[in-house]
Design a protein that fits this description.
mainly alpha; Endonuclease Iii, domain 2; Endonuclease III, domain 1; 2 domains; 4 iron, 4 sulfur cluster binding; class I DNA-(apurinic or apyrimidinic site) endonuclease activity; DNA-binding; glycosidase
């Protein structure tokens, strides 16, 4: 079995039910949740949106309050002022250009304020079922440790390499499994190397040896 197949097999064995952990009931809520998740954990976003989505249901709802009120509703997470401003701008564009609906194309999604390639990829993958690999901090770290990308690759280069190496029909599923692997096993600090079935394929122990040597 080659290294990519081995990695996919192990990820599937470890996290067979990996899926998006951002709580949402529709594409609009998912888009808001992903926008809020920048530099914040999914757990923190879910704690916030549990009350946020009871107050705001539609793009109109987010626009009917002053920016300062929305900022206060978001202040429990980082960058809340920028996120509040982008959410209101995004909601206005949804109403003006997309009949209040979340667009289903990469190009259209990336025209929305606060929506970059990663956010668009998550929405396309999770809500619209389009094969995508969204490279967040976990996917980037795991890809580089498992030698699926070079250490100096940027996130776009990591995404391109993963798309070349992983079968298209496994992109979205693998994206979730890599996030779970990075979030619960191959963590940034103190990864569980001693019990990792992918240790032989990983460059991380060697990095440690060099650092400790």
């Amino acid at each position: 079995m080659d290294r990519v197949k081995t990695i996919l097999h192990v990820l599937n064995e470890m996290f067979p039910n990996a899926q998006c952990e951002l709580v949402h009931n529709n594409g609009f809520e998912l888009l808001i949740a992903v926008m809020l998740s920048a530099q914040t954990t999914d757990k923190s976003v879910n704690l916030l949106t549990d009350s946020l989505f009871k107050k705001y249901h539609t793009p109109q709802d987010f626009l009917q309050v002053p920016l300062e009120e929305l900022e206060q509703d978001l202040r429990r997470i980082g960058l809340y002022k920028n996120k509040a401003k982008n959410i209101q701008k995004m909601c206005q564009i949804l109403l003006d250009q997309f009949d209040g609906e979340v667009p289903s194309s990469q190009v259209e999604l990336e025209t929305l304020p606060g929506v970059g390639r990663k956010t668009a990829n998550v929405v396309l993958s999770v809500w619209f079922g389009v094969p995508r690999i969204a490279v967040d901090t976990h996917v980037e770290r795991v890809s580089k440790r498992l030698k699926l990308a070079y250490l100096n690759d940027n996130v776009h280069q990591v995404e391109e390499k993963l798309m070349r190496k992983i079968p298209r029909d496994k992109w979205s599923d693998t994206h979730h499994k890599m996030i779970f692997f990075g979030r619960y096993h191959c963590t940034a600090r103190n990864p569980k190397c001693d019990e990792c079935p992918l240790q032989d394929l990983c460059r991380y122990p060697n990095i440690n040896v060099r650092k400790n040597g």
